[in-house]
Amino acid sequence: MLRMLDVLFASLGLIVGLPVLLLICLLGLFDTGSPLFRQERVGRHQRPFTLVKFRTMRVGTASVASHLADGAAITRLGQFLRRTKLDELPQLWNVFWGDMSLVGPRPGLFNQEELLAAREQHGVFAARPGITGLAQVSGIDMSTPELLARTDAVMLAELGLRQYFRYIFQTVFGAGQGDAALKQ
User: Fold this and answer.
1) Which of 31, 61, 95, 176 could disulfide-pair with 136, CB 3.0 to 4.6 Å?
2) What's the mean pLDDT in 166-172?
3) What does the pLDDT read at residue 45?
4) Are 129 and 107 in contact (CB under 8 A)?
């Protein structure tokens, strides 16, 4: 049921959001010359997939978790995209193709060993990663791997239709902080 909702909402989001996606792509071309950011992430059953987002940092910035990223590398457009969470819109393609869900644990990087181990221990990799979830609306990020993994496990154990919509609405209406980066 949740997968059908993912496909439906991702399709609608991509169709209705097409003008916004195109506008951000155009602005991104002027901002960095490369509006889309692709990065290999850890997916369901620890399989790799390519996550797609709008680029918020200068091209060539080190590929690390957001909380370890150099805040000075974030462009002015990138600051706006992160604050409004519009940088996440291209992930609707990941949801449509089945690499992600709208609701699930945020996908980590393969070099985040502590997070990978904690998520493995808590059984989090049995689910598709998501754009949003309990940790995101609660302001928990990847800087606290064990807390994040425990929170993801709690969310997955309780995830049903009601929680699915709750996390989506909380995200749309401003819960959570978006991706943080080191201040410079």
Assistant:
1) 176
2) 92
3) 97
4) yes
Phi and psi at residue 35, to the nearest 5°: -70, -25
**Would you say the pTM of this structure is higher than 0.70?**
yes
Spatial neighbors of 76 by CB under 8 A, at least 6 apart, are: 31
- C-alpha closest to that of 162 among 153, 170, 152, 150: 170
Q: What DSSP character marks residue 74?
A: B
- Torsion angles phi and psi, residue 113, rounded to 5: -60, -40
Spatial separation of the C-alpha atoms in residues 33 and 27, rounded to whole Å: 9
- Rounded to whole angstroms, the Cα distance separating 53 from 163 reads 25
- 52, 6 contact by CB (below 8 A): no
Cα-Cα-Cα-Cα torsion 168, 39, 71, 176, nearest 10 degrees, comes to 10
Cβ burial of 106 (10 Å; 0-12, 13-18, 19+) is buried
